[in-house]
Amino acid sequence: MNPHDEFVRAITRRHFFGGASLGLGTAALASMLPDRAGAAEVTGAGFGALPGLPHFAPKAKRAIYLFMAGAPCQVDLLDHKPKMGEFFDKDLPESVRLGQRLTTMTSGQKRFPIAPSKFKFAQHGESGAWVSELLPHTAKMVDDISIVRSVHTEAINHDPAITYICTGTQLPGRPSLGAWLSYGLGSLNRDLPEFMVMTPQWSGRQQAQAIYNRLWGAGFLPAKHQGVALRRSGDPVLFLSNPAGVSPDIRRRVLDSLQRLNQETFAKVGDPATQSRIDQYEMAFRMQTSVPDLMKITDEPKHFVEMYGEESLQSGTFANSALLARRMVERDVRFVQIFHRGWDQHGNIAKDLPAQAKDVDRASWALIQDLKQRDMLDDTLVVWGGEFGRTIYCQGNLTKENYGRDHHPRCFSIWMAGGGIKPGQVYGETDDFSYNITKDPVHIHDLNATILHCLGIDHKRLSVKFQGLDVRLTGVEDHKPVDALLV
Fold first, then answer.
1. How, if at all, do strands 228-230 and 195-198 pair?
2. Nearest one of 7, 2, 50 to 263, comparing CA atoms
3. Backbone angles phi, psi at 57, to 5 degrees
4. pLDDT (0 to 100) of residue 147
5. Which residues pair with 214 in a beta bridge?
């Protein structure tokens, strides 16, 4: 970001009088143009949106990303491979692996024995999608979602892979998807952040991979665009409550005084971080009222709570987070991301994977049904998936009842639903070993381009100059939205 350009854009007294000579001409021109009242509602642009965004009429105003951190196994959940039953404990053919990269966790194995899924699959819905018995509620809504079985990435280890799909590069420091949306499209509400994050507890393997706040960070964009993470206990946001003896009136006077000092600093220096700080203080003050109201799920009708499950009343669960996500988008939060950890099953899939699936299956289904019943699914995009897939071959000891799987970036499965996504289809194909893509590959940059498209953004036209480059979320390669997924 260029501090000088940001300073010039800011509404200061000097800037106001400097541009005043254009005021009458602008007003005259405006009188001859169509009425733009309510333009933000019509176009999807919000307060503080970049000029010209959205680039075209969006199908989705807002999005919810259910991120399964740790890489859910496509072979055991969404990518049925019935022929593998004949290959139990046989070595993965070299003609399939083709010398492709392995992690250090299995590169030293003398064998790569094939582990067919121990879980049963069945076809569901008019689409005939094959879904594992571990996802019975997801199976009920296959005609509401689009399953993509051919997503792929270059990253093979967790932290770079999650950083890659969330920020567009494996190296830390770039803006996250939610930050780009906030920066480009602005806010649809005045009282809550544009981008909110939750990190619920999980039931599977407890030694889960760490996740870092850079996954919802703003990178080189102004700090106000970073995600605001809700805590599982105590104040949902740190320092949300006033200290003992400090009333709202006192807090307001303190902020007013602080704002005057910051405005003086901004007028002298022109650092956009100062303006961001002013905005964040004001948002924090409004959040003292809006966040407690958001968290008050006791107001929810009983039948909605029952749909999500009793866990939705327990703070810190995935079901609770999914219900809160609906409450957030209902209040026009632009982007909500839930990071559910514990999907890194290198061993003991028989115990850990069912527990993980149970955490999220019912609540994910309930979220889609909830949005449908409120007529919000058509303009709310929902994405479910992780950072890469898992191998068909076993890591460690193999039995028919239990096994583990290593990381596999060559293909994995996700699903999408809602605003702009064509429902009731299965897109992409992999080989009999769920090892290589055989039809319709979708790179993670294509996935992010598709998400941006649903929200009215041409991914090639949303960029920021940084270190001499025009940086964008989807990199410099020729990626594009997946047209077959779009309505």
1. parallel
2. 7
3. -60, 120
4. 98
5. none
Q: What is the dihedral of CA 445, 450, 451, 455, to 10 degrees?
A: 140
Q: Enumerate long-range contacts of 253-257, CB under 8 Å, 24 or more apart.
A: 255/281, 255/282, 255/285
**Scanning the structure block, which residue is given the tokens 């959205």?**
54
Please tell me the chain's helix, strand, coil percentages from 3-state DSSP, rounded to the nearest 5.
40, 15, 45
Half-sphere exposure of 66 (CA within 13 A, CB side): 31
pLDDT tier for residue 42 given thresholds of 50, 70 and 90: very low
> CA-based diameter of the chain, in Å?
80
Structure confidence by residue, pLDDT tens digits, 318-341: 999 999 999 999 999 999 999 999
Domain 34-237+301-485, CATH class in plain words: alpha beta
Three-state SS for 136? helix
The CA-atom distances, in angstroms, between 428 and each of 11, 123, 149, 331, 401 are 49, 17, 5, 35, 29
Span 18-32, mean pLDDT?
A: 43
Q: Minimum mean pLDDT among 278-282, 359-363, 446-450, 480-484: which range?
A: 278-282
Mean per-residue pLDDT over the chain, rounded: 90
